[in-house]
Design brief:
single chain, alpha+beta, 2,3-Dihydroxybiphenyl 1,2-Dioxygenase, domain 1, 2 domains, ten-stranded mixed β-sheet, eight-stranded mixed β-sheet, 18 strands, about 25% helix, about 35% strand, globular, binds fe (ii) ion
Amino acid sequence: MSTTSSPMASGSTSKSNDPLRLIDVDRVQFYVGNAKQAAYFYAQAFGFEIEQISDLTTGERQSANYLLTQGNIRFLLTTGLTPDHPAQKEVGLYGDGIKDIAFTVEDSVAAYEQALRNGAQSAYEPVETTDEQGTVVMSGIKTFGRVIHSFVSRTDQYALECVKDRGTFMPKFSQVGDLAINEYNRQNPTGLFYVDHCVGNVELGKMNTWVQWYEDVLGFKLFKHFDDKDISTEYSALMSKVMDSGRELIKIPINEPAAGKKKSQIEEYLDWHDNTPGIQHLALLTKDELNTVGQLRRRGVDFLEIPESYYNIVWDRVGEIREDIDDVKDLKILVDRDDKGYLLQIFTKPLQDRPTLFFEIICRRGSESFGKGNFKALFESLELEQERRGNL
Ligand code: FE2
């Protein structure tokens, strides 16, 4: 099999009127200390299939990469194999976390050039990788802190539709084959299928800068705005604006700390993230919150605790829901309602030893919001955790 990889000259023509029309979330790439072990964690705890691998055995000598899939969610877990690989350096600074929210586009070069014209800084220039199955072109721009957005365009058997149908992800990837954990997950699905939103934490005073950046560079629109009156407890507060990519694709809320009596969760994150902005949480969609959370609890996922008293008042606020309310309470799921419907949500504890990245498991029954009615209960729970860590 021949594989070529080369930097691309500019000047490629766009096939679409808007080169920044985002087709899908191509993958969420994590930089981790040990991708082999992380792959088993996300497979075992959250039901992902360990589908493909790119490492020494497939001709990749710089990094080991595991493609984990579930529904339309693609995680790429990357570990550097050499001391100076960027993933190794960043793991040293930030611990395990998310590096890249990559978007599939029609023409990576055109998207990249348009983003630069719109004011973005380059993360890396377009690179084309080709073999007999097709071509993948990737380029990247820097967003807040250590995070980048790659633009990925795909042809022939590397088209995203083929990848979704278990086609090879990119050159130098191959199928992992049968693993017992994959078989277990097929028989015990957790039901996660989509990345609903991805939240960034930025420094005090920088939220509006990044809101403007998403408007100017990627053409996102402001979807919702929460201030410290919405999101505060006696001790800590934050402000948040939600940026919407349109087309029912990912939303990106941006958080900044607000003044409180004690350290906000955003400050704690930044303290343990080399004072560098990054992704705070990824919200994964399910169509059946009770089944998904039941599965995840049986698999040992550690969720934030919610006081019993939460359920004494929540039903007055939320009204009737389709789910069994005793099950909701037993599983400690949070519920909220807006003018369009309701949602169910729950938050994991940090997924690595540093108090940085965590997941939200969310089910929308019409609601398009983010659980504003739960912020106070949630933040009180988060503060208890901060206190346990000696970080409040
Ligand atoms: Fe969220």
